[in-house]
Amino acid sequence: MSIAMDDLALLLDIVACGSFSQAAARRGWSQPQVSQRVALLEAEVGAQLFRRHRRGALPTPACEAFLPAAQQALDALQRGREALQREPALPRLTLASLPSLSSVIFGPVLLALADAALEIRCSTDHSPAIMERLLTGQAQVGFVLRCPPMAGIQMERIWRSPMVAVVHNRHPLASAGSLQLADIANERLAPQYWGEGCDELLALIRAARRVPGPIHAVQPAGAARELAMEHGFLTFMPEVAVRRDLRDGRLVKLALSDLPLWEWEVMMAWRTGKRADAPLQQVLDTVRALAGEWR
């Protein structure tokens, strides 16, 4: 036989009220029912818990020793109930993205899934940290740059985005037509840093410069975009990150004819499992559908 949580609550009521009859009234039970439950509890713990007298009942030393454990059990049950009430009834997935991709991915995905029967949490981190979070279950879908495969993680390329030179539409070079690196080398430059390709770009710019000056490299994409939009800088960044600005004419892509093609290869990653996961599959399918618009 196991101890019922109601019996532990009854025990505390009797101690608080000082009598079986008052505890019975508090709980809406009959006094014989209370006496029977106490007898069963005493049999289960193997000790007498109360000494009854004409004016009520007093806890025995055994009861006093047992009370803290009873209270802890009831407190733990209450915490569990409160935790369940806080938990959403819908499945929850966490999406993790590179900071420079977050504005491209999170908004469209949340909009597409606005009425879906699931809850989404969005966070940003660097690619290695995102992969680790996928492995540990802290995130369910990650958006990273192409990296070596990892056991237990499925990866799928969702797009390649070229790195493009952009300026504000009021920049003197915005209407310049075809350009070469020498034509932009002396401008105020702040490329988004994307790795080895950016280092190669910076070396080429320095070699083409006729006057000395700093070349800033920044992260994330939002910082590079702001420098171009608000402060007159020329920046290099993934075309997908400023797709809407280019479409609406706020930024202009420069036509540079003598630079290599550098690309961001963006991957969607998730942890593989043996069991079907419908909410996860819904997110994956949604991203695949949206990826065509991002290319």
UniProtKB/TrEMBL annotation:
Keyword Chaperone: no
Keyword terms: DNA-binding, Transcription, Transcription regulation
InterPro entries assigned: LysR_HTH_N, LysR_subst-bd, WH-like_DNA-bd_sf, WH_DNA-bd_sf
Name of a matching Pfam family: LysR_substrate
Domain of life: Bacteria
Alphabetized CDD domains for the sequence: PBP2_LTTR_substrate
Domain called HTH lysR-type: residue spans: 1-60
Stated family: Belongs to the LysR transcriptional regulatory family.
Protein name as annotated: LysR family transcriptional regulator
Organism of this sequence: Vogesella indigofera
UniProt lineage: Bacteria, Pseudomonadati, Pseudomonadota, Betaproteobacteria, Neisseriales
